[in-house]
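re: ur question from yesterday

yeah so i grabbed the chain u mentioned. its 493 aa long if i counted rite. heres the sequnce exactly as i have it in my notes:
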Amino acid sequence: MLEVHSKRTLTCLPTDNPYLLDNWLPTDTEWTASTPDLEVIGEIPTDLHGVYLRNGHNQVHAPIGKYHPFDGDGMIHGMHIGGGKATYRNRWIRTTGYLAEQVAGESMWPGIIEPRRAVRRGWGSIGAMKDNAGTDVKVHAGRALAAMSQCSEPYRLDPVTLETLGPDPSWARALGERGICSHFQIDPRTGEMMFFNFGEHAPYFNYGVVDANNKLVHYEPIDLPHATWPHDMGMSENYCVIHDLSMFFDAEGLKKGQHRLKFHRDRPARFGVIPRLGTSRDVKWFEGVPCYILHLANTYEVGDEVIMDGAIQTNPVPDLSDLPKDGYDRMHALLSMDLQETRMHRWRFNMKTGQTTEEDLDDEVTEFSMISRNVKGLPNRYVYNALAKPHWQLDGLKKYDWKTGNSQRWEAPKGCYVSETPFAPRDNAVEEDDGYLVTYVTNLNSGKGECAIFDARDITTGPICRIILPGHIPMGAHACWTPQSDLQVPGVA
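ran it thru and got these structure tokens back, copy pasting raw so excuse formatting
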């Protein structure tokens, strides 16, 4: 099968915005394509059954104000694999904002850079943006769940067909306008989902739990002294770790409707360790080096310590004084992980002494950490990161082995860029790295995207299989692998 599901006229093009061109160029087509009509280089593993989902931003209409890569309309790309066969689909997430703009034929909401341009009700922590649900995606209670980084309604999708089912009917309304932030965490052993949201007015932060039966069982405000801007949250076997970091919007600026991020270099980062069903009174706070954190690898417990691994940024707002106010150089700087001093880092929170100890785990710029879902919240040996070039260019993979201290790497051919790359265990896997890595590749040389599959035990040899997509796939945000056994909707591969 190879068919066009739908096409859109992209009024955001032509443009000089680099985040709408080249590897960021949006696609105008929704596809449904299956093997044998998909070209396959190599062989699809026969011991791999599940779905690889990746979210991302795929803008349709010309933006209001300056476009930021987090503003685009959410689009899910899904590769359903089973029995050596595969089916690819990509679908825009049909949020209320997306549908309204399709009727209007133009953008109706501004983005993250210029929310002051908003003239109607918006969504998210800023309260003025379109809810694009374009950042994160995971499968919980048999359905895919998508959200954006500035908080959005929790949109459910069929994890195979990618049909938008709408905000979760069981608990979305209970969260009000805040919704959920990207990087909600799912415990693979209990089926529970832990989430947070945040905003510019008190309570500045809320923490919640949805159980395996998709019931909201816990939702509590967390006492914070000011508006914060978190992006991720740690989850161990018994705790979650919430972030009150050193970068956030200036309080006086917010009163004037300004959204200028400031890195408070003299303010320690704060980390709140909360029992899974805890309240604000139960949070044990720790301090650390001033920093910002986008993404974590894992959080787990050893003895009296809660240990959190992730990518630290010790310069999240680089010096912009020499850069022109016009153009895109400032945005480039704010999205360049090398300038942000991004590297793998470890925090240890001692629950008895209240002390924090920290150490760098690597000095190379890598991000978008993934681990085996089987060790999520437990001590892990392996982590799989993307190699990061300036301007958010992910051009390779790096595998860390925390036990030996060794690593492996694979660099993509010039003009090719990877996506966040989850680990997919093979059928009946025993060892932690007994399986595959699955990623989408933006290939500017061919103009067609790819789904690349690696042997996780040795990534240095490159992909063992490349599934060529029918069209271009732009750079994306976050991804997950879900085994077939966790999918509520029957597969169609």
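noticed a couple things. Residues 2-486 form a domain with the Neuraminidase fold (CATH 2.120.10.30). also The chain has one domain: 2-486.
anyway ttyl
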